[in-house]
Structure formats: structure tokens, C-alpha cells
Amino acid sequence: MKEKYFQEIYEQIDVPKEDVQNSIRNGIKRAEFSSKKKKRSLRGIAVAAILLVTTITMLSFSFPSFAEKLPIIGTIFELFQDDEKRYIFDEYESHSTYLNMTKESNGVSITFTEAVYDGENITIAFKMESEHDLGEEPFIEWDTPQAIITAMFSGSQLIKKIDENEYAGILIFNFEKGHHPDTFDFTWKASKIGTFDKEIDQTQLINTIEGNWLFELTLDNIGSQTQEFDNLLSKGEGMELELKSITRTPISTSFYTKEKVSKNLKEWEEENWSAVIFDYELKDNLGNEYTVVTNGSYGNHQYVMNGRFMTTNIAEEAKSIIITPIATPWKQVDEPGRKYGTGIAPARESFKLDPIEVQLD
């Protein structure tokens, strides 16, 4: 499942021939918006899947036809649950802030229904209705608030077509490790909605509708607790993964890592490696297995990156968690018929590093 998902994400990447390594990490414009705002290299492998969201009480929708498409019990977030476990929404219902804020411009109405802020992420659920067809996979272009630019690790938007001219979506802002305020104020302003032409140019929106959708939000931090670590390492194949900290909130668990890949590995040249992407397996000492959603990586050095991944709450009875890093080298490939850039494919089979067992507080 993971391999299929990675390939789906990489098929969306436009990779210019210059500076391939940075292009891979910055190329997922459809799923990730933060690389345009911060001058640093982001691994966006999982940003399209990015996670952390809010589930809430029953909604009182202003559009009855739209409401009929949503689950009888639950909220927008249940629409994004799938068999491949790309997202984790298990604990959001009792911690979300109900919004029901609607803005309309040029025949398109966007309603923020609910949101949650836990010091690690801000996630906003929304619905969208239009007088015109916005396509199967519309993309919203907006100005990222300065407060979020300063604190942001990565981000994404998920949009699903529910019916003719009706959509449900989620906006996700993942923050860097560190202290974040008890109350977060920010302004979100969307200016354009369109689609990407996968066959011609995946970086330019087409069939766009311009408008002004302005929202101002204030969200309270629901709280978190962080456990720091020293010298918790997994090594192998010229690679090293260090666990730096774990942050637990009422709705999720975040893991912060440092990823190192030796620049002396002959495979960079012999197998034309362009990047190494890390995924993870998680289980606790009780045998429970956990869904993992990676939030990407960033850094100023090609071979040393800071990473972040997330899962649901760890079982209260668990005394330890076992983390198994999975490395996948990727390379650029030529694709017949591709008009812009090059394609991406695994350079070799994914392989596991030694597991790390972490004692939990």
C-alpha cells in the first residue's frame, strides 16, 4: 500500500533537470504550499496525505444537498478515511472548534466548518459549492499568513468532489518543533481556484476562478506534552536515523527525527540516487500497530534532514513504542510523452533499518 501511495504522489511531481534533489523535495506544489514561502528544502512525500484534523459535532449545513453526501454520524473528516490509512482522524470529534463561517465570491462559496489547534498542527475542515464545475481535483491558491510561515514545517490541502459542483476539503498546517502560543490568531485569504493539467504543466493552474475568500480565526491550543531523547539511533546501509523527541496531544502523537545519509555512498552515482525518503512502522510493547503519516523533512544540507511523522494516540497501557525506519532511494527517470521535467521512480526496493525501542513516560 505504501509503495502504491508513494508512486501516486511522485506522479504529481514536476522535476526540472536542474538541481534534482531540491526539485524532488520542493516539487509537490499541488499538495504542499510551504516551500514557496520558506527558503529551505522540504521532502513532501507525505504532504498530500498529511493529516491531523478535526472532527466535530453534527453540522448544521446551509446547503442541504451537500449535507446529504456526508456521513449520517460524523463530519467532513470521515469522507477522507480510506482503506489505505493515509490519514488519522480518530480523536478529533471532542476537541474541535465549531466555526460555520461562509465567504462567497464570484459564484464560489467556501464554508469553514470546524478546526483544531494542538500546538503541533492547525487543521481546518471546509465545504465548497460553486456555480461552475471546478473539476475533479480543484486546488485553492491562497496567501499563507505570516504567523504560520514563521512556525510552519509543512502543509497541505485535501479536496474531494462530493457531487456536481460540490466539494469537501481539509487544510492542514504542520508546525516546527518548539513552543507555540496558547491562542493562535491568523488570517487566511484565498484568491484563486483552479486545476492542474497533469499532461502539460503541473505547476500552473488552469480554468481558474479568481475571487476574495477572507477568513479570520482564533483557535485555542488544546495542549501537549513533549518527551526529549539523547542518542536514540538506528543505523544501517550508510544511513542513520535519530529520534529527537515525541510530542503527545489529546488527538495525536508526533515524532521528530534527524535523518542522515552518507554522501560517500557509491549509489548516488552508480544508481543515480536523487533522494532518500524515510517512512516508518510503529507498534507498542502490547503488539498494537499504528498508522503512520509522514509530514516531510527539511534542512540546509542534502544529506542531513530534520523529519517529522505522526500517528494517533498511543495506548494508555503501553510502556514502550518500537519504531522501524524504512528507507526508499528515489531517482529521476525519463518518461516518454512527458512534456515538462522528468519522472521519478524508486531506485531500489525499500529496506528497513534496525528498530528503535522507546520507553514512554
Automatic annotation (TrEMBL):
Q: Where is the DUF4179 domain?
A: 37-130
Chain ranges passing through the membrane:
44-63
Sorted keywords for this record are: Membrane, Transmembrane, Transmembrane helix
Q: Which species does the entry assign this protein to?
A: Ornithinibacillus hominis
Q: Can you name this protein?
A: DUF4179 domain-containing protein
Enumerate the spans annotated as DUF5643 domain: 237-357
